[in-house]
Design goal:
Layout lengths: L11 H5 L3 E9 L4 E5 L5 H7 L8 E5 L2 E3 L1 H10 L5 E10 L2 E9 L5 E3 H7 L3 E3 L10 H19 L10 H10 L2 H11 L1
Parallel strand pairs: 3-6
Antiparallel strand pairs: 1-2, 1-5, 2-3, 4-8, 5-6, 6-7
């Protein structure tokens, strides 16, 4: 029922047990998502606790994802301010939390943003900070993220998109020395 306003407020046991927390999205920055933690509410006790709770935002990073610039734009387009998100704690590094971020898409469907970004080709799979390499959870998550990245690669999406044969020929011709010289001559 406690409200966490800093990554250091979260008990080590929560991180070790990979607890899921709920929060309200405030900002999307280069460093990650700034989320206000929303604690479990118990009707009478929560109203009393609100008076003493301090305000602060948690910095949540998408674990296992190295975002491309287009990924940041996609996040800003898909996520709305004050939107509710769930984040599963995987690790803590200084003042940032490494998490799997889940967004509800309808009543029974939720989407893992980490996987969706990779599936859209808007980032690359990276090392999951905070989890030990020998843990089963690390390999399970890493495999899921690699599968999502492979889907984007197979479908030529996002950063994996390859130019068609005609586009490559066109670029090759327009960048050739002969065509460049003709363009300069024509501009005189």
């Amino acid at each position: 029922t406690a409200k966490f306003t800093s990554a250091l407020d979260i008990p080590v046991e929560f991180v070790e047990k990979n607890v899921k927390l709920r929060g309200k999205l405030h900002h999307i920055t280069e460093k990650g998502l700034e989320v206000e933690h929303i604690p479990i509410s118990i009707p009478f006790i929560t109203s009393i606790q609100r008076k003493w709770q301090s305000k602060g935002l948690l910095l949540v990073r998408l674990a296992g994802v190295e975002l491309a610039p287009s990924g940041m734009a996609w996040l800003q387009q898909e996520l709305k301010p004050k939107q509710m998100v769930w984040f599963q704690l995987l690790g803590r590094e200084d003042l940032a939390l490494e998490c799997l971020v889940l967004v509800n898409k309808g009543r029974f469907l939720s989407v893992c943003l980490n996987e969706e970004l990779l599936r859209q080709g808007l980032g690359r799979t990276a090392r999951i900070e905070g989890l030990h390499h020998d843990s089963p959870l690390y390999w399970k998550l890493h495999k899921r993220l690699l599968r999502a990245e492979l889907k984007a690669l197979k479908k030529n999406k996002g950063i994996w998109k390859e130019e068609s044969y005609s586009e490559r020929i066109k670029d090759h011709i327009s960048n050739s020395k002969f065509v460049q010289t003709l363009k300069q001559f024509a501009s005189w």
